[in-house]
Amino acid sequence: MNPLQIIKKYVPFGSLAYDMLVDHSFAVMEKALSVAESAKGLHPDLIFIREAALLHDIGIVMVHEPRLGCSGNKPYICHGYLGRQLLEREGYPRHALVCERHIGTGITVRDIDTHNLPLPRRDMQPLSIEEKIICYADKFFSKRKGWLCNEKSISDVRIEIEKFGLEKLKSFEKLHVLFSNRPAPEKDPREEL
Questions:
Q1: In whole angstroms, what is the distance from residue 46 CA to residue 32 CA?
Q2: Backbone dihedral angles phi then psi of residue 162, each to the nearest 5 degrees
Q3: Domain ranges across the chain
Q4: Burial state string for 2-32 with b = 16 or more CB within 10 A and e = fewer than 16
Q5: How far apart are CA 75 and CA 97, in angstroms?
Q6: pTM of model > 0.85
């Protein structure tokens, strides 16, 4: 499979959307491969990680986000499940799941119900080691012009994720412990404040 060929099929080469998507996806891919290398004992599929990381955000072409050059008709949060649909049509169901499961630290049915999200009512949490690696790596990069390839610090990632609640931060910390080979903190450092 050639991920760039698939991207070019749906996103005009040289457009703002293409440049933003490809630059962001390459940064995420490089981080994901680095994480996978440090997690060799978990036997991640490096070829799959390379392909799926490049395609994880392809669904943005169907959302309305002018800052990314995307003029679709769906809200940004829909890009995961829309990417899944697109890659399933292309014949890549395993890659499709990465699209759907990489948003935040994963989206639950409870999240969908609680926040009335415009998403299919199903759990969209990373399950496979490859899905978890790409989800984790994606948190270190934003799709803001000028910042696409600048890796965020772990503290900046934590601050951004905490905006979505303590449960999401706990989910991220589980991924961080899994991929950093460090023990989890014994207690929440904010408890000392």
A1: 9
A2: -60, -25
A3: 3-150
A4: ebeebbeebbeeeeebbbbbbebbbbbbbbb
A5: 19
A6: yes
The CATH number assigned to the domain with range 3-150 reads: 1.10.3210
DSSP bridge partners of 70: 65
DSSP per residue, the chain: --HHHHHHHHS-TTSHHHHHHHHHHHHHHHHHHHHHHHTGGG---HHHHHHHHHHTTGGGGGBEEGGGTEE-SB-GGGHHHHHHHHHHHHT-HHHHHHHHH-SBTBB-HHHHHHTT-SS-SS-B---SHHHHHHHHHHTT----TTTTT-PPPHHHHHHHHHTT-HHHHHHHHHHHHHHHT-PPPSS-GGGG-
Cβ contact 39:179 at 8 Å: yes
* Contact (Cβ atoms closer than 8 angstroms) between residue 134 and residue 52: yes
Nearest Cα to Cα of residue 32 among 133, 154, 129: 133
- Kindly report, residue by residue over 70-125, the tens digit of the pLDDT: 999 999 999 999 999 999 999 999 999 999 999 999 999 999 999 999 999 999 99
